[in-house]
Amino acid sequence: MIRKVLGLVPDEFAPLAPRLLAVITAQALCQAAAYLLLIPVLEALFDDDLGRAGVWALWMVAAVAGVAIFSYVQASTGLRMAVGMQRGLQTRIGDHLNALPLGWFETHSAGPLSRLAVENVREIQGAVAYLIAKLLSSVLVPLAVAVGMLFIDWRIALTMLLAAPVLFVVNNLANLAYHRSDARVHAAAAEADTRVVEFAQAQPVLRAFGAVGAGNRALEAALHRQRSAASRMLFAAVPGLIVFSLFVQAVFLVLAYIVVSRATGGAISAAAAIALIAVSSRFIEPLNQAALLGTGLRAAGAAIDRVTALLDEPVLPEATAAVTPGAPAVVFDNVTFGYRPGEPVVSELTFSVPAGTTTAIVGPSGAGKTTLLRLAARFYDTDSGRVLVGEHDVRDQPSVTLLDQLSLVFQNVYLFNRSVAENIRIGKPEATDAEVWQAAQAARVDEIIERLPDGLDSAVGEGGTALSGGERQRVSIARALLKDAPIVLLDEATSALDPHSEAVVVRGVHQLTRDKTVIVVAHRLATIAHADQILFLDGGRIVERGTHAELLELGGRYADFWNERSRASGWRLEPAAV
Asked: Lowest mean pLDDT: which of 142-146, 264-268, 396-400?
C-alpha cells in the first residue's frame, strides 16, 4: 500500500517521501531502543547499582527525546504532503477526466466520480498524514526489538521473529473478507449518491408523478442496499480484527511463558525476567495498534485502488507537435465509428464541407447525425478512416489548436452556476466586458437580463435552472458568437421551443453562422433548404446527397422527409365538432 500511495503524491511533493520514510524509520529505531534499554536499567536497579542505572537511564532519555523529535518532523512532513496530496490528486483526477473520451462518461455516472474525488481522496490523504507512519512503526518497532533481543536471549528473539509471518498471514486473510465487502459498500454508496443527486435535480418530474418520499422506490432501494452493504462489511471486518488481536495476545503469552521458564530454571535473574516481560509487552503494543488501524488501512488501500484504476483509464492520445490550420474546411475520409466494439454507428462515410459553406445533415433518429459533429470535435477517435479539420487530421492537432477552430452549439445546453456574463465569457475567457455585451446583444440575451435582478451578473442556477430552455440556448449561442471560430458545429435545438424563443434563437444562429463553415444537424425546413449541401443519413450511411432542389427532384428518401415535414408544419388544433 505504501508504494501505491506514494506513487500518487504530486511531483512537487515527491522529494518529501524519502524524508518521511527516513524519519519514520529513525523514530521506530529510537522507540525500540528505549524499550530495550529497560532491561539494563532494571537489572542495575535490582543490583542496587544506581550509578550504572543512571547511565543507562540517560541513554533511555536520549532515545525518548529522539522519538519526540522525529515524531514532530514526521507529523509536519506528513501533514505537508497530505495537504499537497489533496490538491494535487484532485487536480490530476480533473485533468484526467478532461482527457478521457466522451463515451467513457456514458457508462459512468456522477455519483461514483464525486465519491472518488472527495471521499476516496480524503482517505488517501489520511493515509499520508497518519496511517503510513503508524503502519511502518507497527512493523519496524517489533522488528527492531526482536533483532535487539538476539543479543540478550535468542529464544525470545526467535519467538518474536517467528510470530511475524503468522500475524502477516492472519492479517491478509482478514483483508480478503474486507476487500470483498468494501467493493460492495462502494458500489452501493455510489449508487445512493447518484440517486440523491437525481432526487435533487429531478424534483419537478418526481413530484408530478408522485415519486417523492416513500414513492421514490429507486432512492429507497439504493439507501437500503447501502445500509445492508455497510452492515455486511462490519460483520466481515470485526471477526478479522478479533482474530488478529487474539493472535497478538497469544504471542505475548508465549513470550511470557518462555521468560518465566528461563527465570525459574535459573538461566536468567528475576530482574532480567521482569525487564523481559516489560519489553515483551512493548513488543506487542505496536502489533495491537496495527490491529486497530486495520479498518483504516484497508479502506485507504481500497481508495487507492479505485483512484489508480481511474487514472489508468486510457485517454485520447494528445498531439504535441504544433500545426498551422489551413482553410476552415471539414473532411470525413472513409470514417467508421461505433460506441461499442463491433457495433458501428456510422460506416465508411466520405464527404467534405468546403470552407465558407453550409452542410445540413438530416435523417431519422439514431442515424448517426450528432455522432458526426462529435467526431469532428474529436470527442471520440474514429475506428477507421480519418477526420480533417483545417486541412489536418484531428488526431495530429493539439486539442487547443483543434478546438480554437470550432464553435459548438449542441441540443443539451449546460450552464454553470455562475453569472450570465461568466457563462458567456467561457467562449473567450480574455474577452472584455464590451465584447461580452456585444455577443449577448447579438444572441438576444439582452432581452433575458432585463427581468433578472442583477442583469448580466445574475446567477443562472445549477445547470441554468433559472432560465428557460430557449434562454439557455441564447446564452449558448452568445458563447459561440464571442468565440468567433471559423467553423460552427450546430445541433439545432429549436424543435422543443415556443415560437418566440425559436424565432430569437434562429436569428442568433444566422448571426453565428454568417461567413462561416457550418455543419448543422438540421430540423428546421428553412435551414435545410438554404444549405449548400444536404446529406441524408440512414443506418450510419449517406444514402442521398445534393442540394435541396436536386434531392427533391430525385424523389427519394429526402423528398419523403421534406414532404412529411411540410405537412406537419401546417398542423393546428381545432375544436371538436359538436
From this structure: 264-268
